[in-house]
Structure formats: C-alpha cells, structure tokens
Amino acid sequence: MKYLFIVQGEGRGHLTQCIALEEILRNNGHEVVEILVGKSNARSLPEFFGRSVHAPVGRFESPNFLPTASNKRDNIMRSVAYNLAKVPTFWRSIRYIRQRIRETEADVVINFYELLTGFAYAFYPITVPQICIGHQYLFLHRDFDLPRRLKAKILMLNFFSRLTSFGAYKRLALSFKQLDEDKKQHICVIPPLLRKEVFRQQTTPGDYIHGYMVNAGFGENVMEWHKRNPSVPLRFFWDRKGEERIKRIDDTLSFYQLDDTEFLRQMSGCKAYASTAGFESICEAMYLGKPILMVPAHIEQDCNAYDAAANGAGIVSNDFNLDRLVEFAGQYRPNPDFRTWVQKAPYIIINNIPSVAFCNEKGRLATYLQIIREKKAKLYRYIQIICILLPLIYRNTPC
User: Fold this and answer.
1) Domain that holds residue 269
2) Same domain for 135 and 216
3) pLDDT digit string (tens) for 250-290?
C-alpha cells in the first residue's frame, strides 16, 4: 500500500515519529510516497530529518506557537493573532495538501498532528482514509487522568486535537503505558515510536547533564545555574536559527545545534536529562534509563510532564533548576516494563492501519464518508463554542 505522511514540523518529536513509522512500513512491504512537513519562519527543518527518510519531502506554511517575550513558554493569544493574520497563506497550504493527496494516489494518509490536514478533510470531500498519530490524542481517552488545575486549558488543547483529526478513520494515541481502546473516540493506544538508532545505543552512566529546549530563552536559566555550579558539565541542544553548530561557553557548558545522531549519543552517556517536556525525548530518556527534569513550555507539554511524572520518569519544574534533577538522579530507578511496551510498537501499528480490503470496499467507504459528514456538523458547533470560551479562558494570560 502507498502512504502519504503529513507532519507538524514544530519541535523534533513528530519528525522522529515519522522516521520510525516510515521504517516500520517499509519493513512490512509498504511504500511512503511523499512526506509533507509544515514550516514556519521561527524554525528550520533539522538536517538529520532529510538524511533519515527515504521518501521525497515537500514543505508548506503551517500554524505554529509563538514564545513569550522571554522566549520561554508559548504565548497562546499572541500565537492566535499571528496565525489568524496568515489565514490566506494557510488556505493555500490546505489546497496544496489536497492536491498532493490526489496526485500521489496514496491509499492512506498518516497525519502527525498537523492542523491543516484536519482542515483539508473538513473543507474538501477527500475519500482517502486518514489515520492520526500523536500522544495528544491520549488526552481525549476516557481513562486518561488529567490534572484538574489545567482543566480549562486542556479543554482548548483537546479542541485543537479534534480539529487536527477531523475526518480521521482512527486516532493512534502514543502512550507511556498500555490502555484499552476507546471506541467512542476512535482511539487505539499504541507504544511510543522510537527510531532504530535509540535501540542501538549503549547506555553508560556519565558525569554530565544532557538537555534539550524547544524555546531558546530557557538558555538563560541554564546559564544562571551554571554560574553557581561551574564544575558540573552541561551539554544542551536547541534549534536556534543562525547559531553555530557548537556554541562553547566554557570548558563545562556547550550549546549544540540539533543533530539527532549526536543528540542520542550524548543522551546515552549522560548522568541525567533536562527537557522542555517534549513527548519523544522523554520516551527516549525513559528507554535509555535516564532520570528526567521536565520544564513544560506550553499546555501540551504540561500534560506530558504530568503523565511522565505519574509513571515515575522524572520531576516537573517551572525552570531549569538542575539542583532538583541532581537530587532526583540519586534515587531514580528505570522502569523495565516501559522497554517491553516500546518494543511491541511495530506489531501493534501494523495491526491498526487500514488494509487494502478496507480501502477498496465500497460499503466501508460509504461508512467512512458518513463519518466525515457527521464530523463536519460537529465542527461548526465546536467553532461556535470556542469563540465564546477563548476570551474567558485566556482573559488573564500574560503577554
């Protein structure tokens, strides 16, 4: 079967999931005909991605979060205003997505949490089955325990997740642990998608702290801590545009441009890992048995950090207070059940994608189109609700 991948390009998590899934499909005799990746002015596509995939890569303008003035947490209202101003550009991207689905003659579209894919299915009569993959869909699951203090923001996040998966045949929710299928939400829970390079790493207990920050403003926190603790080696990765490949501050602090081969090598030999709570890097650290400090940059990462901490992976902080990480590392014990769960991913994935029979069977296709019609009616209701809730939820959001 032929697959078309459409990937949200912000951060590295969706990109590495895409790499892992392409390998699984190719190993099982399938073909990925093209990979479409969203882009923005704030971030560039990491070089490792182009080296790691086999299918041709296309780019399109896509919505993205904007950071606050301090370049740390994402500013929701500023992001909404910025993206609304670019609606004409995004409409061209939606048409481009529809065109590529048609011209590649893909049997199935795999959507890695890209919003404009959901809009393409909402506004055009696309009959190619869509499967959505992302850990964010786990927050829609009936058995997922959500932090009550974030209930209002999670409502917004779940609304966004529904938009990304509009018209989807199935949502594959990546999870730290196994949960039953939620048929009402069309959710099947699957293990994290880790690339083969992760499984090849030889883990050693090093003396340095490894890290990754999606918003480079957190670098100030790291620098401040380093001034107080100059003897502790720190090796942090970021994707700041225009920076040199390795920015060496002194003998014990360096900032690296994101290179995934080097990133994994450094992680496998570190003492502990500090991150802005992206799902993928948390999973990599858990698989390699590294204690984690999580510093969320937006609501999605708040949920990731909450779930990871509940599963014993690490601790949560508002900033890169590495003192807490050093203390936690002394008592951390890896979870062997997590490694077993991750290794089941290829089997579970292959058993949860549509078969050729599904794609060709007219009765199933008619059912699929009926689902899309029903979801379109729900979409308009969701939009009305969100227009009412937005000012109320974010009235006090700092800019």
Assistant:
1) 196-329
2) no
3) 999 999 887 888 999 999 999 999 998 889 999 999 999 99
Residue 354, domain member (yes or no): yes
| Residue 377 exposed, middle or buried by CB count within 10 Å (0-12, 13-18, 19+) | exposed
Q: Which helix (H) or strand (E) holds 340?
A: helix 336-342
Distances in Å between the alpha carbon of 164 and those of 63, 114, 336?
12, 6, 33
pLDDT band at 149 (very low <50, low <70, confident <90, very high): confident
* Domain co-membership, 220 together with 255: yes
Q: Do 184 and 227 fall within a single domain?
A: no
Q: What is the pLDDT of residue 204?
A: 93
Q: Where are the beta strands (DSSP E) in 269-384?
A: 272-275, 292-294, 314-316
Question: Three-class SS of residue 57?
Answer: strand
Confirm whether pTM is higher than 0.90.
no
What pLDDT does 198 receive?
94
Residues 277, 320 within the same domain: yes
- What's the CA gap between 398 and 308, in Å, rounded? 27
